[in-house]
Amino acid sequence: MMLWQRLVASIPYTRTSQPYLIDTYAPQVTRAYIESRLAGVPRYAETVSKPKPLRITKLSSAVEKAPVGRCASVDDPESDETCPLDDNMTLSQQLDQFSIIGRCDYSSTCELIISLFDQSFNQLQSTLQQMVSLGPAAFLSPNPPFSPEQLHSIRLEENRLTWLVYMIGALLNNRSTSSSGSLVDSDQLDGGLIASVMRLLQFGDVCLNLILQLLQQDAQLSNPNVASVLIHISSGAIIRLELAIITFLEKFRKIYIGDNISRASRMYQSLSDLVGISDETTILKVFVSKVLLNLRYWSDHEVVLEPTLKLFGELASSFTAMKKLLTLDDVKFMLANHTPTNFRFLSTTSSSSLTRYRSEFYAYLARLMLVTLSGIGSDDNRPFLDFLAPLTVVANNLISNLLLSENCSISPEEARSNVIGLARDLAGVAFSLNTMAAFQHFLDWFYPSLFSLFSRALEFWPYDPHVTCPILKLLAEIANNRNDRLKFESTLPMGYLLLAEMTKVLNDYGPRLIAFFGQISEDNVYERKVKPLRRYLDALRITLNEKYANFAVFGLVGDNSFEKCVKLSTDMLLCVTDAELKGFIKLSKAYFALLEVLTQSHMEFLCSLDSSVLRRFFNAIVIGVESLDGLVAWSACSCLDSILTHVYKLLYPVSSPINGTSNGINQNGNGMLNNHGESKYPIFVPSPPSSLPTSEIAQAARQRLTACITRGVPIKGCCSALAIWFDRTEAGNTNLKKDFLRHSPDGGVSEFTVTSRQLMITFLASFMNEECKNQWSSGFPIIIEHGFPMYFSNLQRSILNALSPQHRPELEGIFGKLMDGVEDNLFAKNRDRFTQNVSTFRHALMEFMKKMSVKLVDDQQATNATYDTNETFSLRSILLFSAASL
């Protein structure tokens, strides 16, 4: 298949007057592939369907264990994947190849597929009609009175139709590669293929509703599971067919449904003649009807639920498409009736694997609701409250039982399931409400009762990750200032209230979580520690980083909750071990994202802590810089840049007319005077005259300024002295110099020196790596220029001495490019210059290593080397060896 795919794909690029034999043989290959797939169906028609959700990668592990050149599902007779339709990887590859070959003589391909499709469809239709005529008892019986021939026919034809539907979808998806577009009208041929699937889709919906009506005739079944009945009859082949139909609809949507599709008219003309579908609105009705049917009756089966929700999300991916969807009755039904009665996966009895899809479902519904709100104005919240009505019932029930009543009328397990479901649902809603007006409607509904509810839930189930993770994810989403949706009107104090609620919940829950981490065994680290810790770190980062309230105001009014939250952030980061940082990428991303916020905005606070804290963060940054994940390495470099910038400013203070006594400024209780006794600034008045009333907040600010000036604390100005960490700045800088930057009395180097040298080696080694994922580190020149210029020179000299003499001048020139033009300042222009130098340095190094064969100079050095001296080695190896010898 791969050979013929490449041969056919090369036709448009071949210029010759000779006839193409490919045009003769490619249709034969297409026919052989189609007929061979259908001929092989009887071998696995009776096997149970075992397709897996996209999020499950069981096949990948099987492939890793299989010998090279073998596929576990195809070559291994003992593999449980006996049906090629269940092997998504191989199936997708084959269909991509078939779609190119089949377009070579497209009219012949379409004619063959439609003919085979009609045969299987007519046989399936006839057999199902015979079975339905037996009545509801036949479907409810443990031993249904269907003949073996009927059951075999159902399973056989459903598998054959599955193959044909997959092939039709693949041909539609690859229409742009057609080599015969000038000979036939591809859109009309596409219409014929689409019409065949539409007939099958319509018949399947009618058949499902008919069986549902038969089952509802039994008084003992209040909510019959029609999907289970169909699976029992078909031995699971119906699941394969459902997946094929969803895949086809997605391919069809991508090619023929959209704002910029201009070629659909000819396809709709063909479709109208065959099945009566003449426009995009009618097609959307078919799509949404199928989505609703699957969500209602197939939602117990994750393998069908997942792609169905994905299709729903793609349909609601643009504003124009959503406006069209909102005119459909099925969409209106979903917006008004999203209850467990109508959608099984919303039930509290659903498995945990199904509840994860609740957020996605509600995100799509809220996206549609956002379009509705945009058309009625920001003042009318009735449609939004109507949309939230089912969730309001659940929330009020939980509030009544968990907050207001001493005796809970529902079982603990039911309360737990309802909390999990509500948190997931609201996280989806909050995710999609990206406008200020819509999100304010949401907060009006949410605040403050639901903050109290979820805080109480964290008290009841503090160590259950199935409860805590959804709640923490919801809180992080609510505090996320996406698209400035938390930019409230100036008359609303909502920003401060939201921040106060977030810090309260996090401060109450964090210490309990830290105490629990010490009791977790290694077997449960991921489930019990990593997952909730990652969610908690995300919630902390968003709370501390989203600028919808002024943090310093909390201190002025005597509220230390924000400062406690920052302190708690460092405590939570210290809970992460080096092994966990290296072993869990998602945790590493959350760790360094939070550390980046702390180092950028709260460096004064970090320096005021024990030196072991900063030492721990420095060591973590070394791990992050070496990470193979680009985002982790980037965040770690950003943290390093912030720390080194702070150290640089501390060691090399910039001269300023208001910078302490460096310019002759003396401070006293009445103000700031220069050496001549002249006032450069207005006189500071601790307490204004009684005729000038002062608010409580302003009075608190004056008291803080008075305390600073009385103690003789150097300040740059009154406003600067009111910063949130101003009272820690002096102690923090002293602590940093004393415990981290100062060399030990016995002559040993400081911890900062050791770590910085390690970082220097790490950066240089990464620059020499061909697959370097991160070339950015503005703090790197600070290390070289001001931290350890002598060490860098010695390291460079050691590397040059390891080369043969004829290679040294060129490499010395390459090293000279690294700091070329880099000045002694922290200006953005200077940082950008160094970043450009890094790119030039890496490019020159790569070229040097490609054309040179680098060897050690003498046998003595080779004897002491840690690498194989019989082969050439890279500069990176020399660097590491030289660093170890210094």
Task: Explain this structure.
By secondary structure, the protein is mostly helical. Among the domains are: 301-376; 387-575; 585-652 and 724-767, no CATH class; 778-862 and 870-885. 65% of the residues lie in helices and 1% in strands. The protein contains 41 helices and 2 strands. A two-stranded antiparallel ribbon has the order 1-2. Strand 1 and strand 2 form a beta hairpin. Helix 4 (88-102) packs across helix 7, helix 10 packs parallel to helix 13 (302-315) and helix 31 (611-625) runs parallel beside helix 35 (751-767). The longest helix has 31 residues, at 186-216. It is globular and about 95 Å long. The protein starts with a helix and ends with a helix. 37% of the residues are buried. InterPro entries: TPR_XPO7/RBP17, XPO4/7-like. Pfam families: TPR_XPO7. Its main location: cytoplasm. Residues 81-352 form the Exportin-7/Ran-binding protein 17 TPR repeats domain. Keywords: Cytoplasm, Nucleus, Protein transport, Transport.
